[in-house]
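Hey,
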Amino acid sequence: LPNINMKRSIIVIILLALTVGGWYWWSNIREESVIIRTATIKNQRLNLTIASTPTELSRGLAGVTELDWHEGMLFAFPQRNTYRFWMKDMLMPIDIIWIRDAKVVDIDANIPPPAVGETKLPIYQSSEVVDQVIEVRAGFIDKYGVAVGDEVIYN
């Protein structure tokens, strides 16, 4: 009888390990691969991480502590709309470039991260319908003179 209980215990442990391991593997495999696309705005080439899945779109740059002047994130939306952004879990200030049909239609510059403990976060929304948004390091818009009407060239 002790031998049968030992075998049952080992089987339960193996099944539990396979279940936990399978869940861990599945949750990691489902995360999207990092896809980089380059774009040029005002003769400035940007290396953009693409956010296109619901998880990536909601997470954005949350948790990122710094970006180089030529790095950012491209939010590629499935349809045109007036999308809303907030700075939840953001650790650095950013500029938001709102885009429709590869043209800048609106900009929000130098958006600060939330203060520690801040719970009522401002919402940022384009004044026009957009199909893409680029988030870059704060100061990019001013440094390179990005303006409404500028063309975004994807390489």
